[in-house]
Fold each of these.
Amino acid sequence: MAFDSRTAAAEQSRTPAQKFYFAAWRWHFYAGLYVIPFLIMLAVTGLMMMFITQFAGRDGEKIAIAQGAAALPIRDLEAAALEAVPGTVKEWIGPKAADLATVFRISTDEGQRLVALNQYTGEVLGSWDRRAGWYDFADNIHSELLIGTTGDRLIEIAAGLALVLVFTGLYLWWPRGNAMAALVPDLKARGRALWKSLHAVTGFWMSALLVVFLISGLSWAGVWGDKIVQPWGSFPAEKWENVPLSGTTHASMNHGHTNDVPWALEQTPMPASGSDAGITGIPADTAVNIDSLVTLGRVLGMEGRFRVAYPSGETGVWTINRDSMSGDGDDPFIDRTIHIDRHSGKILADVKYEDYSWMGKAMAVGIPFHMGLMGTWSFVLNVVFCLSVIFVCVSGVVMWVKRRPAGAARLAAPPAPAEVPFMKGAVLIGLFTAMAFPLVGLTLLAVLAFDLLILANIPALKRAFS
């Protein structure tokens, strides 16, 4: 009883600002319990994917060859690829430089296969399953925990709660006296104080990047991205005047978790071949095939690595694409997608970066930045960022262990204030969060209900979580 009296007295002596601080700390703690394992997983798998992309490549783009005098016709390379791996050619992937291999993607009964060739000799250098490497293993964990839609939803909740973690963390960090101590860690401190200083300062310096990474990642998520943001931010097919549309969207060009088209185009309907629509692309006296398509791409300004997707069916279209998200270049501002009628060779659609909505533009830059594909500087920055995320997560756990009473069979969460100042403002923020991020809003409501209705009324649970 004496303990309860002291606790009540301490609660009464707190100012409104102190009560709000404890409330923010409690929410920061609870969010961290769920988010920390996910953030560590995302950082580790992100590091794996970046290092594999940087040093080994994803689609054979790092395979070196001896540069010859002249490259063979692409149709000859296509035939050699099909002889090595029978199936249906789906995509030609040009080399980034003259001393790198050409790659074809072929659809087989066993799945998508990549075949690398020396374009000067026609020699097949190797073939492999596009989705069976270490990059793909890390990507599958990063996107859905290897458990499909359920994993996607769990990660989406974690990303949304990580935003709560960032904003409550910034509030807790906000300088209340010595501003320099909030910007530079106090290396003279010892024990939990040192860990707290390192955790807070590192968290502050990486907070803006973390928000960018979380938003760009959420834009791929199944609910907030696929159902809310992506439909609103997609490129409007109505811009293609008098062009017939097919019954499929650009997402049909993807396979598995591999995204071969820009985010802003995924939900945009594909144009269809077989009409008189379009403007002159391939001259009327020239055959419409892979060689003429690659030539057209270069005439239109495609340099270095770009891709040509083959048409599917009689109404399918050829698609020339350069996309920094796919590692075709490190400049998202020159990304471009061009559709050509498979019969007439006319250009049906030509979409550039400047044609996107502002959200599409943000994602066109945000995704390759997120993946460390915008040059060496972004790779180095992302590596430092991922290591910082891991440190902040580990230091948070260390602080909890050091604060938790020795041998205590309870969670040792920050104490909940009897009343929370500025409650109306907090409720408004909660409602906005629920509308903007549905899964996060539902999760916050569930946690709040658990805290107020269950923990508050079951003494054993209340003590275990206190």
Amino acid sequence: MGRFKTFLSRLVQPLSEEQIRAAVIREADHILADVEWRFAQARQLEAGLPIGARQATAEDMNNLRHYLTGYTVTNNMNTSGTVTPGSIRWQALHIVYAGVDYTIADGGSLLKYHYFVKPASGNTATLTSSDTKPTLGQDDLLVFINNGGVATVAATDGAASLPGVVADGAVDTGALADNAVTGTKVANSGIGANKLATGAINLAAQFGSKVVATAAIADNAVQSLQLNAGAVTAGKIGSGAVNNANLFTAGVVDSNAVAAGAVSPTKLNILSHTLY
């Protein structure tokens, strides 16, 4: 038996005092903090005194507002207390709502949104987590937002205006100040053709020099109505560009279109008869 104990002692290395202290703090610190908070709260209650003669606490409230009490939230740590980049951990969380003190199960998650859904009965609950903004009922509450391992307590005053808290479709034009949306806030290719009204872009000042390249013009986009009379000059017509029979309709070239002396003998078939 003695040899077995000696063998085990060699396998299991004793923990240092510092390691034991760190483990106790990691696992029990939030419990001690919660006990201290509730002890201080109990002293303030002073049994037998009416509410008017003592400090009111969240548990005294019976209204349709959520109150968070006695909790800790730790960045970059998972639910078991292991350092985990990107995760958050919550402990000893209580939510007081409509006069009921709900005890929330300890937890942690790598997901972004963590919210309270009021249970149909009882006074215990577990936060629901997701990577998409939740659709909340009037009795529910978005509690934490995980920003890559750093927790934001969305339920507290002052955090409700964060972009991650605002519900989809909640920001209308009246909520945006003039000139609030700048060029840096618009994604590349963020404004498609269907977002531009007909004739919306019509000033020369709206185009930089040579900004419209040939690749930006659709096939057949430039029609005769888009060209001013005389807009296409001789200098804009390439050499030999007008040389195809299908460019002329029958009878389009009459005597008025031919300059005097324009048809030289070399342009005539020498075997043809010319009568005049």
Amino acid sequence: MALEVKIPPMGESITSGVLAKWHVADGALVNKDQPLFELETDKITSEGTAEAAGKITFTVAAGTEVKIGQVVATIDTEVSSQKSEASPAPAAPTPTSDLRPLTFSETSPAVRRLAAESGIDPATVTGTGKAGRVTKGDLLAAGEQPAAPAPIPATVAGAAGLGPGSPSPATFARQTRTKMTKLRQTIASRLVTAQHEAAMLTTFNECDMTAVMELRKKYQDDFVKKHGVKLGFMSFFTKAVVAALQEVPGINAQLDGDTIVQNHYYDIGMAVSTDKGLMVPVIRGCDGLGLAGIEQAIAGAAKRARDGKITLNDLEGGVFTITNGGIFGSMLSTPILNAPQSAILGLHAINERPVALSGQVVIRPMMYLALSYDHRIVDGRQAVTFLVRVKQVIEDPSRLIVGV
């Protein structure tokens, strides 16, 4: 029985994607629930898995744009059942003296056709098929390997300083060209759109991180033992943002044409850097979560994003975004709005600096804060008030308990 492998539904707004890579070889035996391929869309990257065990045959090559529901392979489930029933003993190894290179005529028609198209000589490929025969999968794998760089004359190598033990000439390539993924294209488009359509402005402040750092140091071990996650800075800033949004509700609003939509919930987006690009999973109901709940939700969302397990629902519906460039060492930046949201808070590196406190110069761990906002809907007074409120909560977290 041949089972069709289809591109699974991703959500109403996603109708197509790119089959970025196959995780298995064409003609390979696969197990039920084994990851088969990676699909890149304009919003998320996800994996397709096998619904049954059997022998897989590709109908679509990697790099092809596909539609939701399209058949990209078939799985012959009878091959798997026959193998499990027969389970023949492995054949004795062929004596070395009988081994000989396969001739081109001894390869399958599919391999000969692919060899003609790719220009790869099957005689140069190590076969994994029966009796060492080269399979179509072997040839596809060989085609994905980078060609060995051509040697350069000794005179050129000497002039370039490439003596014995020097890096390979391939590392000195002047350019490489890689097509943008659909996700990266979407990120680029959204950022440009945000800059062109919003009246974006940024206001700055700084906050003393002493109180939060002391709390983390004092309770970190007990926090980890009880909740199974570290107490980080993001949960404090999330609660500070919720308090500021409640005090300045104008920032918890967005424009829909000429209509102002006021939000009365607190789903906060957390920017996460992945090897696929920037993603912003949303932490739901932050006003009802404690520090532990927020930290657990952030850790889970970040892991799903980096593992390629993020869903469309994880990314939708946020009212405000926090981005932390400080983890990479950023001192100051002007974050770009995450449309259609009206504001975004940028966090930065914590550095010890001399500051004036009660008439004395003291050294304190300081962080710059940056709030970018859409001036079409948010006034400067609101933006400054919001940022001051965040600063107050971070510098004195007991305000969260007292409610002031």
